[in-house]
């Protein structure tokens, strides 16, 4: 290639020993004897850019620039297709199935092999990036003369105590090439195309479906080898890994992924409830027997109608003598055809005797499956001695996930409490700990270390104290204060919970 003329200008400087100006022989090797330069200090070699161009703009160099533009475009499309394909939702797939076009069918076929698709994208992108590095190195060597790097290396070696001129020259050449290539790849090959793909995922997926189908067939041996190697490493890691993901990690992941969306608080609560759904026992959500509305089988028909009308429940347990001997469940809808019966109507024939008994320790996810299998909505909860502890319904299970469910007949609050201010809440002693935690907006596991076998707020205080406390007694845990407001002879009836203040 024809080289351009090189010119170096030096600042005038006299010889400190003789007082005379230095001769041409004192100039560096780059000095051109055909010119009349002025001398300068060696450090200023670093800032001389006159020998920057090593070659004229030749057709080969033009082809290299054109090639790197095409490679950057290919890298952008491949990188963008990764985001486009792997951000498609179920709704997008449904639309593509309805479209039923060749392009849509190609997208659906590619999505059936996600590991192979990802391996093809990564292999293709790496080949393209390597080609960009090679072409960029050629352009750098063609544009910047080797003498320029030598000049910079000499200046750096003169001023810095380590490294020689050749080392610094190579370092400058590597630095320029690396910065140039990194800038091109990050901006045009990663950031910009992935932002575009996030906005136009279906459009880009359609554009790249044919190309990726061809690449998957062409690179099948390599992608298959990569997928098998990945599966082997994954299986080995899974077999040797003994540390599982903690609930705190999952909660943090939920906060990070959903926390920025609108109305995220309710969605976060639902997701966290789903995560811990399998750890909740029936005892934690059941209605205690003292709060259950039930009817004695010896009651008259008029008494039954009064109980059904006042309670507003659609299912009422029927017992004989006491609640430990439940005979069955009375469905109030079965009474609709007998509203005008006489006082001696034998309503006991309407009791359905297929009762579902569940232990207190049963997990609610298993109970939900049992409800679905048996097609029932209510179960009697029994303790370890066979006595009836209370009842649990399908609605109780659903409320554990999505929160309180109310219909047009729910006039009273499911959990009765009084919010005095932002830091003080007064609950009934029978209020379940889980319900109280949801109301004061704290984790339901906060009191696990002191609750023992208790499920209610009153039971929590009994576990903490070991006896029935007097009115005004206070207990503390992790900054929370519990004060007994009303206490009867046998149980705590009202409790004031004070939240810790934020300092």
How do you describe this structure in short?
The protein contains 17 helices and 12 strands. The protein has 503 residues and is of the alpha+beta class. It folds into 3 domains: 59-237, no CATH class; 278-402, CBS-domain (Roll), CATH 3.10.580.10; 417-498, Uridine Diphospho-n-acetylenolpyruvylglucosamine Reductase, domain 3, CATH 3.30.465.10.
Written account of the structure:
This protein is α+β, with helices and mostly antiparallel strands. The protein folds into three domains: 59-237, no CATH class; 278-402, CBS-domain; 417-498, 2-Layer Sandwich (Uridine Diphospho-n-acetylenolpyruvylglucosamine Reductase, domain 3), CATH 3.30.465. The chain is 49% helix and 12% strand. It is built from 17 helices and twelve strands. The strands form three sheets. The protein has a five-stranded antiparallel beta sheet, covered by helices on one side. It has a four-stranded mixed beta sheet with strand order 1-7-6-5. Strands 2-3-4 form a three-stranded mixed beta sheet. The longest helix is centred in the middle third of the chain and has 35 residues, at 165-199. The radius of gyration is 40 Å and the shape is elongated.
Mean pLDDT: 79
Total separate domains: 3
Radius of gyration, in angstroms, nearest whole number? 40 Å
- Poorly predicted parts: 1-55
What is the tally of helical segments? 17
Strand content: 5-15%
Total beta strand runs: 12
Largest pleated sheet: 5 strands, antiparallel
Spatial sequence of strands, sheet with the most strands: 8-9-12-11-10
Approximate helicity band = 40-55%
Give helix and strand order, one letter per element, not per position: HHHHHHHHHHHEEHEEEHEEHEEHHHEEE
